[in-house]
Amino acid sequence: MDLNRRHFLGIGASALTAGLAGCSASSSEETATTTSSTTESSQTETATSTPEDTSYSVSMEPVGEVTLDEPPETVAHYFPDYGDMAVALGHGDTVTSMGLPSRFHVNHYDELDGVSFDTDSLTKLVGDSGISKEVFYNLDSDLHMIDPQWLINNKGFKLEPADIEEITNNVGPFFGNTIFRRTDTWHNYRYYSLYEAFRKVAEVHQEVEKYEQIKAFHEEYITDIQTKLPGPDSRPNALLCWQGSNEPESFYPARLSGKGANKKATDDIGLTDALSDTGIQGLSESNRGTIDYETLLQVDPDSILLRGHEDKTREEFRNTVLEFMKNHEVASELSAVKNEKVFRGGPIYAGPLHHFFLVERYATGYFPDTFSGELFDRDELASIITA
Question: Quick one: which of 167, 221, 232, 294 has the most CB atoms within 10 Å?
Fold first, then answer.
């Protein structure tokens, strides 16, 4: 988007930061002179034409309404779940950045013909000293698909409201809502579900029809899964935690009941939170540190979902992490380890395409007597994305 086009980007009055210039329409006059051969007189005819106004507005808290003259060509992202949405809509080529590109897991695209993403092309927003305003100037993106309150309230980023206002005025508006978790005290505005946020991204890229097709595909898929699930009393609980080591000795607990978008896959297959009624809070809920195997034994969860291993295949995870736990003096006493119900916990920021594969992973892993193989049609989904 060139500088002239950027003048057509704006934010509504309810925005968090100062608005950009509103949309405008220009007019031109063309004067035509005709000469009559019989009278040798001339007359001037003035015609006025007004270009069609193609602007449109999309609204999402906390920023409010953002007005664009056409879909953005370059979009700065922090959250991989939103990046996954862009890829699903066929606009992965607009994504210019991630907070931490290493957290944008894209191996699932390999199973969707014609769908791919090169994470090497991304600019990393988070540096050793936080996030610099200059990185946004250097990216010069048409839109920042980032919840500005996330940037302001994470003190390690060292961005202030005045910085957001400056970037909005000089580069482009912010638009986005933190959806991956629901435990931040500063998030006192509306939360969006995964598909509610996905709809907003589709409106930004003017791909609502494609969104509706993916949503319909998703609803049919989840309905089919849920009609085949065992009854609630036959579903296991799960301890969700994070530890990236292949030889884990301690874990950062998370709450499966947190209702953020990254819990949608476990919600969809009916898993319950092993930490319910234990008094153990998740990492994002408190300043609590890690828990060890002795604490895990007290809880003795039916299963463990361990984040930090999304770059491994199931077999690689079993041969490293699970194998270590099976040979560990204390870990080997856990029911989840004995029954080999220790699984990769999924990405922290799971978008709609991640979700298709996560539901399949969990359904086949937890209920192998009911589910096996591929549970959704890769070709059909890919054909929607690439149409």
Answer: 167
